[in-house]
Specification:
870 residues, alpha+beta, Transferase(Phosphotransferase), domain 1, Neuraminidase, 3 domains, seven-stranded antiparallel sheet, six-stranded antiparallel sheet, 15% helix, elongated
């Protein structure tokens, strides 16, 4: 009798079935018994409503009261019903009637692979490859949904009469994102696989990690499939000893007899695939089951070539009954085919297939962060579309639509395994690439956010979802805390992208020495040892993700990986580059592909319309002459690793290159541009006209921003020296720098008053302070607010132009009286095209308020799902 939809792991005689032909189970009529297994009995039944025969699996009545067995039975239904694939058995219904729990499923007319292998003879190569390809395709679908089978075996592979393979019995399937269901439930001593209730895997088909009680992922199923293919090719099990215990030891420690020895006619590419699947170390198997299916399909589709290769390698001299002159010709043809196959096909198998890219978002704007939800398929991301406020959305790969989660304006920072979101309420840019907000917690399923901590820049959940690693501003420093409140390290610059490793041993992050600048170094911090490895200096580092025991990161258009010891290697490189966001348990990557531009717009004296003054792709203004006719800017092109200082007339005349440097400020007479080198350690004066550069005495400072003193003979600096946060310094052009404030002071815009006696700076409390020059005595600006920034002084020195610091577009600029704090609006600045712009700055305004320049970063991003990383 054919077996439909069932694995015959124990005989009908050993387990009498309680249902009889003609009886009913819910809406279904029982027709006949089909078989039984550890998970339950299976019957042929009739669905009268849809006029079709189906298979029904029921939990045996004597064990239906066992909560654990009932849970596993229901898990089978939930796991399999979530999958829709021609090589996975379709689940129609789950229900209960008269105390009997059942699953209604597709009826497959055919035989199990175990029955096909019962003779002990190998299957024909073409047939075994067809079975292997279909099985791998079905597993790839399950693994893509985050589901691991965990009990794959010939009994659970049904071959229909028309040759279709159906994977049965997801009763052992484990959602890989659920840490509560790990291999710790695996018994250390496993009885015979035919023993009722033995459902934690089948001896001889387990992976080494499953057999030793370790956590498993999709690569465990790859090992099992390798063992099944080995058996199809040889007629013998890869691991079979006298007892179950000995078999387990063989799985963990021993290698099977070489496939070439047991099956000389097997194509070499197939042998290589089997060897890779049966690697004891999961890291040596396939990065994705989709890649495994692709390689198997390639061997099947080129079987004639592969068979020639196998024949050449396996046989002795070829004997021909034709005329003697044919022998050399045939040998030459066959040898040529073999060489071509070995050179080409083997290279194909061991050269990773190119990754597959699926676009997930289609609107115009900026992706802030993206994370996988616990189901491994839903994607949660923060975005600002068409110049609007940040919002949190969700999407799935099978559909192009995104839906808002209905939360307040916010960005998502992390998603825990338990389904809680860590979000940034009131997310807003600070300066450059830095951003901040109030850390809050909210269930993915819905609810009101609960605020946790202010001034948080980024965060990540611990493995159990109970603690958070956060980077946040505290005084003049940015700290990395894990758990929250416990300081691991701190920086005078800023820290981004804290990500906890899957084993909880490390936190990876990027340490940026200069506030707002994306340049920095990748760091892997060992939590237990309280030590760190500085992996690589990044010219523009944004985005990190862990893939098992390595960190994947982006740097100048390339995607790279780093081991915990600091070894770096390349992954992929794409035009425009990809920034990693998250990696699923089965190795799929969420990444943003970004079109970056830094633009600036200006209003020249006498003009009534703004003009776009952008020169190349990353034009960053640093100063405007007092008459508004010339702008000093950097060109930080992504095509080069250094900075180039330019001047350009605001009437749109072509830009003039001054030199390779980062620009800081014009001298009062406009004849000099103050610049620093790439690492910010050396100040140089570059002439804006004729003349020679002048290098200033080198100090032990790293320079963040600067302006000339009123007489042009000295400098006011915001800088960092070792062991200190940012402070204000004064320096003669021929002398050393002297600190005049404590830590936490920052300069921005045209900071110095017209008389040169007062500088407007942001203080340690993030509010504007008025600092006396050169004494350094400070007093708060009346009515100052956190995060607002000084732009420059009015011509009379009695008021400041202020940027409100709000994340919204347009940028709202006010004029504030420095004595009374009284304010009045000056102008709202809006980019000509706001899409992809989340903030505006820096802004420069001439003292008379008639001319100005403002800059903004445009990031037009698309979110991609990347499969098949090497």
């Amino acid at each position: 009798m054919p077996r439909e939809g069932v694995e015959p792991t124990r005989s009908l005689e050993s387990a009498p079935m309680p249902l009889t032909a003609g009886s009913r189970l819910g809406p279904y009529e029982i027709l006949a018994p089909l078989g039984a297994g550890g998970m339950g009995e299976v019957y042929r039944a009739r669905d009268a409503k849809l006029a079709r025969d189906i298979a029904i699996k029921v939990l045996p009545s004597e064990t239906s009261a066992d909560p654990e067995r009932r849970k596993r039975f229901e898990q089978e239904a939930r796991s399999a019903s979530a999958l829709n694939h021609p090589n996975i058995l379709t689940i129609y219904d789950i229900g209960a009637a008269d105390g009997t729990i059942y699953i209604a499923m597709e009826l497959v007319e055919g035989r199990t692979l175990r029955e096909l292998l019962a003779t002990g003879e190998p299957l024909p190569t073409k047939r075994l490859l067809d079975v292997a390809v279909q099985t791998a395709d079905g597993l790839a679908k399950a693994h893509g949904a985050g589901i691991v089978h965990r009990d794959l075996k010939p009994e659970n592979l049904m071959i229909s009469r028309d040759g279709f393979v159906k994977i049965l019995d997801f009763g052992l399937a484990k959602l890989t994102e659920n840490p509560a269901q790990d291999a710790s439930v695996l018994p250390t001593a496993i009885a015979s696989p035919t023993q009722p209730g033995t459902v934690m895997g089948t001896v001889g088909y387990m992976s080494p990690e499953q057999a030793s009680g370790q956590p498993v992922d999709f690569r465990s199923d790859q090992f099992t499939l390798g063992a099944i293919v080995y058996e199809m090719a040889t007629g013998k099990r890869a691991f079979q000893r006298k007892t179950s215990a000995e078999t387990l030891v063989a799985v963990i420690r021993e290698e099977p007899d070489p496939l070439q020895q047991q099956s000389p006619k097997a194509p070499p590419p197939l042998r290589w695939i089997v060897e890779r699947c049966l690697a004891k170390d999961p890291e040596e198997r396939y990065a994705s089951t989709k890649d495994l299916a692709r390689d198997l399909r390639s061997v099947r589709d080129h079987l004639s070539e592969a068979s020639i290769s196998g024949a050449i390698e396996a046989t002795g001299p070829i004997r021909l009954r034709r005329r003697g002159w044919l022998l050399p010709a045939v040998l030459a043809l066959v040898a040529g085919a073999a060489i071509a196959l070995i050179a080409g096909k083997r290279a194909h198998l061991f050269t990773p297939a190119p990754p597959e890219y699926q676009r997930l978002t289609f609107r115009r704007g900026t992706i802030l962060n993206a994370r996988f939800a616990p189901d491994g398929n839903t994607v949660v991301y923060g975005a600002a579309w068409e110049g609007g406020a940040p919002e949190i959305y969700s999407t799935r790969p099978e559909g192009p639509e995104s839906k808002s989660l209905g939360l307040p304006s916010a960005n998502v920072l992390a998603v825990s395994h338990t389904g809680d979101l860590a979000i940034s309420l009131g997310w807003h840019p600070l300066s450059g690439w830095e951003s901040s907000g109030t850390l809050a917690r909210v269930p993915l399923s819905g609810g009101a956010p609960r605020e946790l901590l202010e001034n948080v820049q980024d965060a990540d959940w611990s493995l159990d979802g109970k603690n958070l690693a956060v980077s946040r501003q505290v005084g003049s420093r940015v700290r990395l805390e894990y758990p929250t409140g416990t300081v691991l390290t701190e920086a005078t610059g800023w820290l981004s992208d804290p990500r906890i490793s899957p084993d909880g041993q490390y936190v990876a992050f990027i340490e940026h020495p200069e506030r707002g600048d994306s340049a920095g170094r990748l760091v892997i911090f060992d939590i237990a040892r309280h030590s760190k490895v500085e992996v690589q200096v990044l010219s523009g580092g944004t985005g990190l993700a862990w893939r098992r025991n390595e960190v994947v990161f982006g740097d100048r258009g390339a995607l790279k990986r780093a081991s915990t010891s600091g070894k770096v290697s390349a992954l992929i490189s794409m035009p425009g580059g990809f920034n990693p966001q998250d990696i699923s348990a089965d190795g799929r990557l969420l990444a943003t592909r970004t079109n970056y531009r830094r633009e600036f717009v200006g209003l020249a004296p006498g003009d009534t319309r703004e003009r776009n003054l952008t020169w190349l792709d990353w034009s960053f203004p640093s100063d405007v002459s007092a008459d508004g006719r010339t702008v000093l800017f950097d060109e930080q092109s992504r095509a080069r690793a250094d900075y180039s200082a330019y001047v350009r007339k605001t009437d749109g005349s072509p830009a003039v290159l001054l030199g390779t440097a980062r620009s800081l400020a014009f001298s009062p007479d406009g004849r000099w541009a103050l610049t620093t080198n790439v690492d910010s350690s050396q100040l140089t004066l570059l002439p804006t006209g004729a003349g020679a550069p002048r290098t200033l005495p080198k100090t032990n400072l790293l320079h963040q921003s600067a302006t000339f003193l009123a007489d042009g003979r000295g400098l006011l600096l915001c800088a960092v020296e070792k062991g200190h946060g940012p402070r204000l310094y004064v320096q003669d052009l021929d002398g050393q720098a002297r600190a005049i404030t404590g830590e936490g002071y920052e300069l921005s815009g045209r900071a110095l008053s017209p008389d040169g006696k007062t500088a407007a700076a942001r203080g340690p409390d993030r509010k504007i302070q008025l600092v006396a020059i050169p004494s350094g005595q400070a007093r708060p600006l009346p009515g100052a607010h956190e995060e607002e920034s000084p732009i420059g002084w009015t011509a009379d020195g009695g008021s400041l132009y202020l940027d409100s610091g709000e994340a919204a577009i347009p940028a709202h600029v006010e004029i504030c009286d420095v004595t009374t704090g009284a304010r009045r609006p000056w102008k709202d600045l809006t980019p000509p095209d706001p899409a992809g712009v989340v903030s505006i700055g820096p802004i420069f305004i001439t003292p008379d308020g008639k001319s100005y320049v403002y800059s903004y970063r445009r990031m037009l991003e698309d979110l991609y799902l990347v499969r098949g990383l090497p």
